[in-house]
What does this fold into?
Amino acid sequence: MRIAVLNGPNLNLLGVREPELYGRQSLDEIEQHLRDVARDLHVELEFAQRNGEGELVDVIQSLRGRVDGALINAGAYSHSSLAIRDAFAAVQVPFVEVHLSNIFAREPERRQSMLAPSALALVCGFGARGYELALRGIVASLERE
Ligand code: DQA
It folds into this structure.
């Protein structure tokens, strides 16, 4: 099984960016931890981080027929991007939406997700640990199919 782990705008700055909200772990450290978890689960991972919406759409399109599922933290695009939701629908890749913070406990404009209606699941509020929970969750779901 192969899973893509995608991160959107500003998540390349994890660790230094608003650490009180997003924690002190860098994206590299999160990805390294996920590699260890993936080894235990016997799944393969691939990673991508892009700041642009169109660039994320390009990455999602490239997943077609190559991966079984994806985790995505689309950052601020989660709240606005029909294009990202459409891209997943187009390539028919099941995905789990991830956020470090609990978006439903934040400003009103963050309390809605454009992606959630098409997501297999949504994990938010667990900080960096949410990526691991999402990975374990999507692998269990796909194995059950
Ligand atoms: C975020 C929440 C978004 O509202 C924000 O724009 C981010 C990070 C999170 O992981 O909590 O960039 O996706």
User: Anything to note?
Assistant: Residues 10, 73, 75-76, 78, 99-101, 103, 110 surround DQA (CB under 6 Å). The first strand starts at residue 2 and ends at 7. The chain has a mean pLDDT of 98.
